[in-house]
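Suppose you are handed only two things: the residues of a chain and a line of SMILES describing pyridoxal-5'-phosphate. What would the bound structure be? This form records exactly that question and the answer produced for it, so the two can be stored side by side and reused later without any lookup.

QUESTION INPUTS
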Amino acid sequence: MSVEYEIQGLPISSIAQRFGTPLYVYDGEVLRQVYQELRGLLTPQVELFYSLKANPNISIVNMLREMGARAEVCSLAELHTAVEAGVDPQHIIFLGPGKSDAEITACIRYGIYAIVTESFQELELIEEIAAHEGRMMSVALRVNPSFSVKGSRLTMGGKPRQFGIDEQSVLQGKEQFEKYTHIEIMGLHVYMGTRMLEIEPIVENTRHILELAERIENELDITLRMVDVGGGLGVPYHEGEQFLDISELTEQLNPMFESFQRSHKNTRLFMELGRYLVGTCGMLVSRALYVKPSYGENFVVTDGGTNCHMAAVGTGSYVKRNFPIASLTRYGETPEAEYNITGPLCTPNDVVGKRVTLPPVEQGDLLGVFHSGAYGPTASPTHFLSHGSPAEVLIVGGEAFLIRERDTPEDLLGKQRLVQVSPTPITNG
Ligand SMILES: *Cc1c(COP(=O)(O)O)cnc(C)c1O
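ANSWER OUTPUT
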């Protein structure tokens, strides 16, 4: 029996019909559940910051803001997005290794809570701009710690990185930090890595960071007003990966935060999360344009390739591991054949899923790549072959809302300038 996939009672085919494909669909109910479950389990001492990098759509940011999330931004546009979504500037922090003059100036003028600095040279620039603006700026130090803990897919600590300032330099930086007149060094930020799916490394990271906070307070003789312990909590993508046990995790983290808070009553504690908050709520919906065999394998050529879902390519591992993929128009049917799911790009790398077992796929069927709410269009080469960004839809209260229009050829051409260069005449000297 053929059963169609539904989101909040809306059949996926009607959503695809209305908004076209390829299409990102976010289930607002799942977003709410994920946020509220974590918020309910985590000690209230810890404020949750949403890393816009994972999905910068303003409606997603707004929904998270309504539920109480703060914002961690890394570019001028992300800063504007957070402000326009209504995030209180005192709940915004700005970080990133390559901040421009314009970005630092905007942070100071908006009066955001803190700039997280990543180098001594950047401190000089913040001091200069703050003095010029006649303002005092709060600055947190992003520290590249001397410890590192295994278990992250991308380990940050204890090795040469372009991020942050090495722990040793920070601990020896007292004189340097004291000379500024328009900067207050008031916070610590450490981000240890991403896609963490095991409890122990997260707990160990956090323990180390809270200890580092105390060392910094002692060495620099300051009181920290904020400590951001990062996050990097993952979402399962591949076979064999499991959801983090969030209640076990918070059970282990909460006592550490609470005990830190008892001796640091005026320190705000932050955790910043991107993928974990938005990853599970989103799905890429694409349509099967053609189905064809080639040397014994089946290919489904869809309209949603890696140009809108680069993460599905699975860079960095030898064996391609698939995201969860299903037939949405034959959701109830038994998977019985293997298909390679490809897109419209003219490159053999445009493979969204390799040897995915699905019910028989026919032209016009809809396929879904699940757990795709984070690092979708934002981290994909959407301009490749000039296809442009896909449309994005948010489902709330059983209703579908367009939250990002699909790019048109006019959008893609609009920024280009046609320059008629006449051939240089050949002159005979
Ligand atoms: C990318 C990034 C995040 C978000 O990471 P997730 O794994 O998506 O939670 C948070 N903080 C910093 C500093 C980052 O670079």
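WHAT STANDS OUT: The first helix runs from residue 12 to 19. The chain has two domains: 88-273, 280-414.
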